[in-house]
Specification:
Helix 4 packs across helix 5. The chain is α/β, with parallel strands linked by helices. Bound molecules: pyridoxal-5'-phosphate. Pyridoxal-5'-phosphate (PLP) binds next to strand 8 and helix 9.
């Protein structure tokens, strides 16, 4: 059995420790519990001990569990942290409170349109392809400044920060440092960086949110 309450406590303590060590503001750091592919009872266990911010990476999977949970538990903030297809934008806007994966002009345009239709102005993050990996989502580093500007000025999106997933098997620190630099020069305050294996490093480099899945819930169910 995974002790989710203890995991959450340990991770919070570890976030605080890292923040103190690197002189980051601990109050400004949000633990996003990544509940994708987790059995419902584990998600409920986290909700029952007061966890309120969750991340999901697929619209459809999130639709299967969250509308009901959001009705039952007040104050839930649900973040989309996976790639978003434009044909799911409308559903994403209806269900999520924050969208962390805006990564291309077409998506930015359609999200802006759907938010207008829904009368919403959701905070969004721009996902940066920080390792310049061909197979990874995210806007290229060289296009980041122009894209951020386009999202804000052309599409009127409420861009609050940047998100990245560093290349697997490499030291995350240099990539987090680059993300921070891009955010600073664009006047963006929020940084979503760090997962189970490297969230302390995310905090070191100024993360305002870390996305922790297995560290909170234990290993995920195999995808069918
Ligand atoms: C699954 C996922 C996470 C959480 O990963 P863990 O290693 O389980 O902490 C974080 N961010 C994104 C974008 C993910 O898809």
């Amino acid at each position: 059995m995974t002790n989710i309450a203890a995991n959450l406590k340990d991770i919070q303590a570890s976030i605080e420790k890292s923040a103190k060590k690197w002189q980051q503001e601990v109050e400004g750091i949000t633990l996003v519990a990544v509940s994708k592919k987790q059995p419902l009872e584990r998600v409920v266990a986290a909700l029952d001990v007061g966890q309120r911010v969750f991340g999901e990476n697929r619209v459809q999977e999130a639709q299967n569990k969250w509308p009901e949970l959001k009705e039952k538990y007040s104050g839930v903030e649900l973040r989309l942290i996976g790639p978003l297809q434009t044909n799911k934008a409308k559903e994403a806007v209806a269900l999520f409170d924050v969208i962390e994966t805006v990564d291309r002009p077409k998506l930015a345009r359609i999200l802006a349109k759907e938010m207008k239709v829904a009368g919403k102005d959701l905070p969004v993050y721009i996902q940066i392809n920080i390792g310049e990996e061909e197979q990874k989502a995210g806007i290229a580093i060289s296009d980041a400044d122009a894209f951020i500007k386009e999202c804000k000025e052309e599409h009127g999106l409420n861009v609050v920060g940047l998100m990245c997933i560093p290349p697997a098997g490499e030291q995350a620190a240099p990539f987090f440092a680059i993300l921070k630099r891009i955010a600073d020069r664009n006047g963006l305050e929020k940084l979503s960086m760090g997962m189970s294996s490297d969230y302390q490093i995310g905090v070191q480099f100024g993360a305002t949110s870390v996305r922790v899945g297995t560290g909170v819930f234990g290993s995920r169910e195999e995808q069918k």
